[in-house]
Amino acid sequence: MDYVPHSSEDREAMLRAIGVAGTEDLFHDIPADVRHPTLNLPPGMAEPEVIRHLNALGRQNQNVQDMPSFLGAGCYNHFIPSIVSALILRGEFLTSYTPYQPELSQGTLQAMYEFQSLVCLLTDMDVANASMYDEATATAEAVLTACSITRRSKVIVPDTFHPTTLEVLETYAEGRELTLVRVPAFTLADDGTFHDCWEAVSAAIDADTACVAVQVPNFFGWVHECQQIADVVHANGAMLVVSADPVALGILTPPGAYGADIVTGEGHSLALPPAFGGPRLGLYATQKRFMRQMPGRVSGMTKDLDGKRGFVMTLQAREQHIRREKATSNICTNEALAALAFTINVSWLGPAGMRKKAELCLSKSHYAAAQIDALPGFTVTSPGPYIKEFVVHCPAAVRSVNEHLLEQGVLGGYDLGRVRAELNHHMLVCVTELTTRQDIDRLVAALKALG
Question: Residue 339: is its pLDDT beyond 70?
């Protein structure tokens, strides 16, 4: 149904006001021969036909619902209960936007406040913002904050960090003329096994270092010991930025307990199922003394003149509200709907549920690793403890291994050769609580057949 808000008389009045004879005169800068091109489009379809056509296209995709998946590398298939979609699809949440008028946005502000509180509980930090775009930008903003606070420009990052986050850090560093030092934190033996060189990160820290950024677990799945790093960082007057997986925090020591100054993370896997990579959900928490340097916005709880509880935008230090040169970040929004989904899911799970989810990932991943490691030609090579991801050295290039697995109805792990050429025989395998024993046995049988 067409909806045209202006009548012919309205349009004629507007054309007269701007001094043109007709609508065509508005496009006189565009050559006439390209204004109305002939488009090679199929004839129109009725709505039922469109639905059938789109469903047929969708069935061509191979997805985690139709076959076992062992892909991870930053985008994880965790269970999202139906209560999440039932609540976030309510009109008052789904259609809400930035709460510029707090008195009219109490529900949104309360949801943001609850989200911030849960992030603080997970990370053992004092204060969190209302979310950021994703883990990569949250970590980059944390690095910029650390440089501003310490008034230094050297940033140390181990090469076990997620590669796309490293790319974002490099982009941010170039714009701010920071020195980004990528420290090799592992070596590769001739037989394809990994060897941890974590002590190299401590050795790189000096009096010029603004911050050290580490990832727990790292991109390759294993968990570094961070307490010693934290001690060396603080002894040199620098700051520690930790990017942590919130699911792993169900059983790991929270970063605040070993002295992290800023904690970031990716909350997508606790909010929404994998869907072509987005939207994402960046987590950002810090110590109270750094609150005014924190990017983004903060929802706070207060009382009105009658003593009733209410919620307000406590901090939003960005260029729309203060002088641009004083803004802490150019990120001027947050992932409110994804943050609400995260809040509902984590509240539904509770502390026991979060721990159980992480324990299931731990036990299932170790069962899968043991089965794969027993196969001829396949070696599990993780130099540290891991929770849900581990690296497998394969007898052939991972690309060919994954093609074979796909023929067997299995989505294989991530090809690390896409990150570094010398890792083209290394597969990053991910196992979550949704992975069944039958899924793992099916993967093992397919790999065995390949061998």
Answer: yes
Q: Residue type for 139, please? A: T
Angle between helices 163-176 and 135-150 (to 10 degrees): 40
Statement to judge: residues 389 and 301 lie in one domain? no
Torsion from C-alpha of 225, 228, 231, 235, nearest 10 degrees: -130
Tokens of 337: 């709907």
How many Å apart are CA 266 and CA 100, to the nearest integer? 26
Q: 314, 346, 378 — which closes off a domain? A: 346
Q: What is the pLDDT of residue 99?
A: 61
Please check whether residue 180 lies inside any domain of the structure.
yes
The C-alpha atoms of residue 259 and residue 123 are separated, in whole angstroms, by 11
Two tokens, residue 425: 């025989």
Q: How confident is the model at residue 3 (pLDDT cuts 50, 70, 90)?
A: low
**44 domain-assigned:** no
pLDDT tens-place string over residues 407-416: 999 999 999 9
Residue listed under structure tokens 């053992």? 124
DSSP assignment of 267-324: -GGGTS--STT-S--EEEEE-GGGGGG--S-EEEEEE-TTS-EEEEEEE--BTTTS-G
Using DSSP, state whether 366 is helix, strand or coil.
helix
Residues in the chain: 451
Q: Is 69 among the domain residues?
A: no
Structure tokens at 281: 């959900």
First to last CA, the chain: 60
Residue 267 CA to residue 283 CA, distance in Å, equals 6
**219-259 pLDDT, tens digit each:** 999 999 899 999 999 999 999 999 999 999 999 999 999 99
How many angstroms separate the Cα of 139 from the Cα of each of 2, 144, 148, 164, 265? Answer: 46, 9, 14, 11, 8
Coil vs helix vs strand at 188: strand
Q: Helix, strand, coil: what percent of the chain each, to 5? A: 45, 15, 40
CB 230 within 8 A of CB 390: no
**Six-digit token pair at 247?**
């699911």
What span, in angstroms and rounded, lies between the C-alpha atoms of 388 and 381?
14
Give the number of domains in the chain: 2
Cα–Cα distance for residue pair 390/413, rounded to 1 Å? 10
Please name the residue ranges forming H helices in 3-81: 8-18, 47-58
Tokens of 421: 């050429």
